[in-house]
Fold this protein.
Amino acid sequence: MNENELIEELEKLGVSNKSYSLNGEFKVDAYIINKVYGKCEFYYIDEKGRKEDKRYFISKNEAYKYLLDKFKFESKYPGKLFSE
């Protein structure tokens, strides 16, 4: 899965682009994917700026799939991560 495919799938789910960053851009209350030392770092930044659910993936493809699965699960419980 590449970045464009991921974005398309997230749009289908109704996920707000404020809820994630695919290039390491710092966003509060969002999931972040960041390339660090040849690996992909994944984490959630809470409203106080703390990193949670930190994980590492070998490739962006794996990180993208994880993020998509996370939003698919959360789509069962709509809230602020989704467009209105």
In short: The first helix runs from residue 3 to 13.
